[in-house]
Specification:
single chain, 8-stranded antiparallel β-barrel, alpha+beta
Length: 278
């Protein structure tokens, strides 16, 4: 692989926005009961339009009640463009409920599928045809291969938000320091490590749905990781086991972890009165 580009091919799909809000409970309690009801009704109507286009459409926005001090509410959105995500921010800002929340964190990324295995095969096939890296012929070969892969993997590139009770989100980087630098490791070694890393995740496939999004050039970390499950202990077990994997043990840096309980949009009024629906 030394003569080939060191960068693995990637496929991109839905753009993703995570919004984290702290709620102003003091101001909310000071608001008249009748006014609170109107604000809730307006907010629920708006969030239902975020959630899905119609009753038969996949869920592309979801609300979570966050545990801990980092925030009170999490909104997660999957859309086809950055403009669509930006419009959601603007639409939410028009609601009166927005007067009671303070954004404390956010994360912007795009669903990403890394193609370490197929990249090598695609590079070798192009080289076997006599195409030089980055030549017009080479680029056309890459584009054709990516198109075929994108069509085959469309459900993973444009996912619905899983209907699970719990969400775990965290950002992460690969180390690139003086002593340990993921980006200087030979391609074949990275491919081997990523294969072994992925096998751990696959073993938890019946318990945890994992959606990886790339954020290089979009936010402060290189990737965002969303884990969805009905048993929150599965998050701990999966992430703990991965810590022993070479990719994580040697090359991974992790940001803050956020965990939330799924809050049906219809349950927002109950949440605002101190009741979490299950």
């Amino acid at each position: 692989m030394a003569e080939f580009p060191p960068v693995p091919l990637t496929l991109e799909g839905s753009f993703v926005l995570h919004q984290f809000f702290r709620f102003d409970w003091k101001s909310w309690r000071a608001c008249a009961a009748g006014e609170r009801q109107k604000i809730v009704a307006e907010a629920v109507a708006a969030m239902k339009t975020f959630e899905r286009e119609n009753a038969d459409s996949p869920v592309h926005s979801a609300l979570y009640s966050e545990l801990g001090h980092k925030a009170d509410l999490i909104l997660v959105h999957f859309r086809d463009s950055l403009e669509a995500l930006n419009q959601i921010e603007l639409d939410l800002a028009q609601t009166r409920l927005h007067d009671f929340v303070t954004p404390v964190h956010s994360y912007v990324s795009v669903v990403e599928l890394g193609l370490y295995e197929s990249t090598r095969k695609t590079y070798e096939a192009a080289a076997a045809k006599g195409f030089a890296p980055h030549s017009p012929e080479w680029n056309a070969e890459m584009a054709a291969s990516m198109k075929r892969s994108a069509e085959a993997m469309a459900p993973r590139l444009y996912p619905a938000i899983p209907d699970t009770k719990y969400l775990c989100f965290y950002p992460m980087d690969r180390k690139r320091g003086e002593g340990v630098n993921w980006y200087t490791v030979p391609y074949a070694e990275r491919q081997r490590m990523m294969h072994e890393h992925g096998m751990i995740g696959r073993r938890y496939g019946d318990q945890v749905r994992q959606i990886i999004s790339g954020s290089i050039g979009m936010d402060d970390w290189e990737w965002g990781v969303d884990l969805f499950a009905d048993d929150p202990i599965a998050f701990k077990k999966l992430i703990y086991e991965m810590r022993f994997d070479e990719v994580s043990a040697v090359y991974a840096l992790f940001g803050q972890f956020f965990i939330g309980v799924r809050l049906p949009v219809e349950g927002l009024g109950g949440w605002l009165s101190g009741k979490l629906l299950h």
